[in-house]
Amino acid sequence: MNQRNDYPAGVPCWVETFQPDVDAALSFYTAVFGWQPAGPGDLSGDGDGGRYYVARLRGLDVAGISSQPVPGAPTSWLTSVAVADVDEAVKAVTQAGGTVVAAPFDTPPVGRAAVVADPDGAVHGLWEGSARAGAQLVNEPGAWSMSQLATPDTSRAAAFYADAYGWTTETLGAGDGAATLFRLPGYVGGVPQQPVSREVVAVMVAGPGPAQWTPNFWVPDADAAESTAVRLGGRTLVPGFPSPAGKTVVLADPQGAVFSVTGVDHRA
Known about the structure:
It is a single chain. With 268 residues, this protein is of the alpha+beta class. 16% of the residues lie in helices and 43% in strands. InterPro entries: Anthracycline_SecMetBiosynth (IPR052164), Glyas_Bleomycin-R_OHBP_Dase (IPR029068), Glyas_Fos-R_dOase_dom (IPR004360), Glyoxalase_6 (IPR041581), VOC_core (IPR037523). Residues 11-129 form the VOC domain.
């Protein structure tokens, strides 16, 4: 299921990065992942909203690269969750203890969106797709695979995401290496050979804060991707470590947006 045309409500569906220098970001991620950017589109629709590019592999949408709609905003990656109705989803988020960062807005013709935060401040998006459901290619080298939440209070986060999106949790591992898998019961995603249930939609780990969502991208070779990123001005935040899918490295791009890469053998 590497190619996708739809995402059920409650499934993370899209990742995008907001950058002060969008041209520099395009050059960096094109070199690291081999993306072909398409665009730009206007963020506001009135010709004065900055630039938004859709990154593609083999002609399929994999991520967004955007100038910052608000100058001075943090440089970051945003993970968005598919919802049936953005306005109703915002109500569910606030009732669950979250906050609204950006109220629902239209992005014609592709969909309707909002930006919210969980009770510990982890910012993420809500996406009601029309012309674009989300990423069209996932779980392949150069494409997004899954996003991870690092948070100081995993119990509070588990309760919030259960109430807001219907996610359940399952512990993977033990001790300092333990992680929590978020699952959406009944969902079938991922790839058949993956080492965890195909209901898994995200991962959570305990961290000192601030709470943050970080996207993970598959690559043919984690060391090579790290070397390219560092050569182009990025930084290694967490050196390579073993993960269920392969060797993972946590990186920051030259403008500070955090992401990770995992080296996988796509032939498996």
